[in-house]
Write a structure and sequence with these properties.
Length: about 280
């Protein structure tokens, strides 16, 4: 089976955002440039989501050992490459799927809309970006790789002048009571303002306020939050109202919203400097 058959993308170069690869040592972050790289991303997602996290694959996914859906065809795919591992698919060690409003319109939906009512976000005259399908190879789960992914997202935000980022973020397991401290903390300390607040679909709504707020050990809760959710919170992110159990992926999901003008000046200066330096280093400048 060819990469084109697996990914739904034609082989060869594809249109992608124009920022240069950002490097830290042997690691680099950029956008996927062709169908083979998207195929490597989908293989990484399968290993993490299905082999490691014990999600339940469809028969088709299990046959090709790829995590893919129709939204991959309209998305831009951010990837982290470990150049020490060569130039093949094994060098792809981290990824994020990025879907702008225009791309979602071509697909007819955002992924998040399958779990949350995002009509309030869609009604805003904002340039929207959905973040999703984030994962990192087990051997590369460190701060450097996560920072590279955020640098890549920041470069993309500058490229397209994104106003608002959102998406589903996952907590491991499907028992809300086992995650009661985390859900309670997120609701009471990081609930989105009404005009930016997604709400879990009625038929999937799981109450987040599960414990008395005074009973929480805030430090212990923060230590247990997944790094991805903590990353959103550091950027000034909010959560929506209600969680959703995703039994196929063996997770409980919350909606995250980050208004990019809430990102601190420190982050903007840092990411913009990295982007400018990368562009200045491009051949032919």
């Amino acid at each position: 089976m060819t990469a084109e058959q697996r990914t739904g993308q034609p082989a060869g170069t594809i249109e992608r955002p124009g920022f240069a690869e950002l490097r830290v040592g042997n690691l680099g972050v950029r956008m996927a440039a062709n169908a083979d790289e998207i195929d490597a991303i989908q293989a990484l997602r399968y290993r993490v989501f299905y082999d490691e996290m014990r999600a339940t694959p469809s028969r088709a996914a299990a046959l090709i050992r790829r995590d893919r859906d129709a939204l991959d065809e309209v998305a831009d795919h951010l990837l982290v490459i470990d150049h020490a591992l060569g130039d093949g698919p094994e060098s792809v060690v981290g990824t994020y799927r990025l879907i702008r409003r225009e791309a979602a319109a071509r697909a007819g939906r955002f992924y998040t809309a399958g779990e949350f009512d995002i009509s309030r976000l869609l009604a805003l005259p904002y340039r929207l970006l959905e973040l999703g399908r984030s994962c990192v190879d087990a051997a590369h789960r460190n701060r450097v790789v996560m920072q590279l992914l955020w640098r890549g997202i920041a470069a993309y935000v500058f490229e397209y002048q994104i106003d608002l980022m959102f998406g589903c973020a996952s907590l491991p397991g499907t028992d809300p009571d086992a995650l009661a401290p985390e859900l309670t903390y997120l609701y009471h300390h990081h609930l989105a303002p009404p005009g930016l607040r997604p709400r879990a679909l009625p038929e999937r709504y799981v109450e987040m306020r599960r414990l008395d707020l005074d009973s929480l050990d805030r430090r212990a809760v923060l230590a247990r939050l997944p790094p991805l959710i903590k990353g959103y919170l550091r950027l000034g992110g909010f959560v929506g109202d209600g969680a959703v159990i995703d039994r196929d992926f063996n997770t409980i999901d919350v909606a995250m919203v980050v208004k990019t003008d809430l990102v601190t000046d420190k982050y903007y200066r840092h990411y913009e400097r990295q982007l400018r330096e990368a562009l200045d280093d491009e051949p032919g400048d």
